[in-house]
Amino acid sequence: MKNKSILLCTLLLASTPVAAKTWQLNGYASQGYVNVEDSQFIVGDKGDTFKASELGLAGSWSPWEHFRFAGAVNYRQFGNLADDDVEFDYLFAEYSYPVFENSTLGLRLGRTKNELGFYSSTRDVPFGRPSIMLPQSIYSDYFRDSQLHVDGGDLFGKHILFDGVFEWHATIGQLGVTDQFTENVLGSSELGKFDSEEYYAVDLDYQGDYLHLGLTYYKAAIGFHTANNNTYRDGKISVESVVGSIQYRYNWFEITAEYSFVDNGFKGIELASATDTSQYDSQGYYIDLRFYLPENVELFIRYDDHIANKDYPDGGNKPWGPYYGYTHDWTFGSRWTFADDWMLAAEYHQIEGASWVAPVAAPNPMTQAKDWSIFLMQLSYRFQW
Amino acid sequence: MRLVVTWTLILFLFCPQTSAAQVILNESVDNSAISAEELRLIFSRQKLYWPDGQAIKVFVLAPDSDLHREFCIEELDMLPFMLQRRWDRSVYSGTGDRPEIVKTEQQMMGKVRNTPGAIGYISSHASFPQGEFQFEE
């Protein structure tokens, strides 16, 4: 009886303003500067740009135990790779329930983030990614639409294991393919339209105190409807991919590596007829060494390697020049969280090759050198309500 | 690099270490021992339910406050930015919420006292009548 009285008092008090909130808001804003030498990647023919802005607001509301509603709205522009646009990054209803002592199972319905590798789900957030520009061998900006979010269902589980957390997702739905994807692949959205047809993914993730492991498998199909039969045919791109990820942290030092294998299937589009097919495998990987120094300073060095077609690692099949078949990117960067909510980041990419330079299906070797470089700076602010 | 790490650790050791933080719990929580690993999982919002199925509500002080920093280093054995990184990953992927941030220790005590399933921390010299917490090293 006494216990019941205590519980009742506690619950009554819980409804007063001093109890926990049922909602929370988080957000960020960033402004960047990009300077590119010997390429029109991101900056076009101007050589540099300040069109690198991000603004996001994420909210969640838990009106009843086990239920949660969450949504995020983003504004983003990134040079010629992403025109300024506002969209829902995620918007879903979630039900989760504890199972046994250390497990939780749940389901999300609506628009959920795409969990691919360590960073796809937070790739647009300055505080959620390791650098201003992610390693393009795995997180290509031209292919960003396909890694951003999924409209459908996400069945997930969370299990406490070996003092860490094992989390899994089984996702089914459609990707959010926009006109920007068409521009980044073909060079113009006037030439046709890509539409997501199907998407299935399984993501496994283990986060311990020092070790972080990840494995993702996904299968996606994107249909193409031509607007001009003389240039491109109706068709379809089918992609099947595996991404493996590992991160180890020891004191002030961290090493991260991710590997991606992609089986690309094409029907029609740039082939001679709408029924012709072709297939090739591509791969990418990166290794990132990172040092956490005093005064909240991070320094990193990263090698990022991409091969567009594994049968031609030196790009011998590319009519525009062999360097369109691969990319080797050495990145040197730093991030400084100079106040709790403020971060200043800068990085320099020394690059050989152009396999992920947009538009990937219609390159211009007159403006793209084999050896080129990118310098980026970004100031970011976050708030937590 | 080794030199930098060594000097950083020496500097940290010689920094004045004021009193540590103490964990506080709502009375609805079974206050049997919680291991350091569990505490880390709770404050990084990865363990979401108590063993009796009650949802865990986590409260922290402002991430730039001295007490939060002390709590992260001494009780969680984590640097504050590591904890923040885990919250950011949950929040911006939509998969979870970060802890609720309160402004003062008084507010922290009020919230923990009045929220079933709540856990938070205050400085070790402050007193919190409920939930005498046993920490399992």
List keywords for this structure.
heterodimer; A: 385 residues; mainly beta; Porin; 16-stranded antiparallel β-barrel; 59% strand; globular; disordered N terminus; B: 137 residues; alpha/beta; D-Maltodextrin-Binding Protein, domain 2; four-stranded mixed beta sheet; two-stranded parallel ribbon; 6 strands; 40% helix
CATH superfamily of chain A: Porin
List segments of chain A where confidence is low: pLDDT < 50 over at least 5 consecutive residues: 1-16
Biggest sheet statistics of chain A: 16 strands, antiparallel, barrel
Kindly name the structural category of chain A.
mainly beta
CATH fold call of chain B? D-Maltodextrin-Binding Protein, domain 2
Largest sheet of chain B: 4 strands, mixed
Given helix and strand content, the structural type of chain B is alpha/beta
What does this structure look like?
The complex is a heterodimer of chains A (385) and B (137). Chain A has 385 residues and is mainly beta. Chain A contains 2 helices and 17 strands. Chain A has a single domain (32-384), classed as Porin (Beta Barrel). Chain A has a 16-stranded antiparallel barrel. Chain A starts with a helix and ends with a strand. By secondary structure, chain B is α/β, with parallel strands linked by helices. Chain B has a single domain, classed as D-Maltodextrin-Binding Protein, domain 2. Chain B contains 5 helices and 6 strands; from the N terminus they run αββαβααβαββ. Chain B has helices at 2-14, 36-43, 66-75, 80-93, 105-114, and strands at 21-25, 34-35, 57-61, 100-102, 118-123, 135-136. In chain B, the strands form 2 sheets. Chain B has a 4-stranded mixed beta sheet. Chain B has a two-stranded parallel ribbon with strand order 2-6. The radius of gyration of chain B is 15 Å and the shape is globular. The chains are: A mainly beta (385), B alpha/beta (137). The interface between A and B is large, with 60 and 47 residues.
